[in-house]
Amino acid sequence: MLSDVSAAPTPDLRIVPVNVLYPHEDHDSQRSEPLIERLKTESLMINPPIVAPMSNSEFVILDGANRCYAFQQLNYPHILVQVAPYDSGYVQLETWSHVVSHWQTGKLLDHLRALPDLTLSEGYHASAIAQFTLRDNSVLSVLTPFNITKERNAVLREVVSVYQKNASLHRTAIREPDDIWPLFEECVALVIFPSYQPADIITAARHHAYLPPGVSRHIVHGRALRVNYPMDRLRDENTPLQDKNQALQSWVREKLGKRKVRYYAEATYQFDE
């Protein structure tokens, strides 16, 4: 049950070992590769990844898989994260929709039909792993015979990979096709995904049954942004983790004491991303 989001608690910021973080989705190579190069010389960590506890001091990455992957590839020992438990009442799990643009509908459908272990069926189906609404407002559901999460998610990764490689892909929270068409003139399809539960996300992380990138959408009330924490403290391989976290908490208390932390309860749009 969602708590009163107008009074979200102070973010739970922690420094943790990189190897205790488990993704639930594939990283996006188009985003992660440039990020790796940038983090080699970055002086500040701006937005920490969001993670939720699993067990035994392990965490599932809710948002920020590309950042965590980049830290791993760079062999950095520790990373700054915001811990946001699913049962805190301040985390909503939803899904993004995908807008597929700058391609031809026929080629999209040909590529999808060529994939193994799936069929395209007209209309809405409750068991579909994805639903495509085409520009003429016809609907095609992607069905697979698999019931096991790992196999179903593997098929879904192949589906998303088709248009990720061949078309322009935009994520959106909008699910109504009639609202999408005027915004994306070159759009050929709107892809809608089924709802997921926290257990689905944790299962995907534990069993490497990854979702495609950009499908799950975690809304964290009280999210920490523009943190700007020194990267050299995270790269440091000599300072013990406990000492790093003590220094982090002192840094947070100083920020709060000097009123350098501001909480916005309302939903916002940022125009400088």
Break the fold down into its secondary structure elements and pairings.
Blueprint: E1 12-17, E2 21-23, H1 29-39, E3 44-45, E4 50-53, E5 59-63, H2 65-73, E6 78-83, E7 91-95, E8 97-101, H3 105-113, E9 119-122, E10 130-134, E11 139-143, H4 149-166, E12 168-172, H5 177-180, E13 187-192, H6 198-206, E14 216-220, E15 229-230, H7 231-235, H8 241-257
Parallel strand pairs: 2-5, 4-6
Antiparallel strand pairs: 1-6, 3-15, 4-5, 7-14, 8-12, 8-13, 9-11, 10-11, 10-13
Helix pairs in contact: 1-2
What does the model show?
The chain has 273 residues and is an alpha+beta fold. The chain has two domains: 5-93 and 218-257, Conserved hypothetical protein from pyrococcus furiosus pfu- 392566-001, ParB domain (Alpha-Beta Complex), CATH 3.90.1530; 97-192, Conserved hypothetical protein from pyrococcus furiosus pfu- 392566-001, domain 2. The protein has helices spanning 29-39, 65-73, 105-113, 149-166, 177-180, 198-206, 231-235, 241-257; strands at 12-17, 21-23, 44-45, 50-53, 59-63, 78-83, 91-95, 97-101, 119-122, 130-134, 139-143, 168-172, 187-192, 216-220, 229-230. A hairpin with a 5-residue loop joins β4 (50-53) and β5 (59-63). The longest helix has 18 residues, at 149-166. The chain starts with 11 loop residues before the first strand and ends in a 16-residue tail after the last helix. The relative contact order is 0.21.
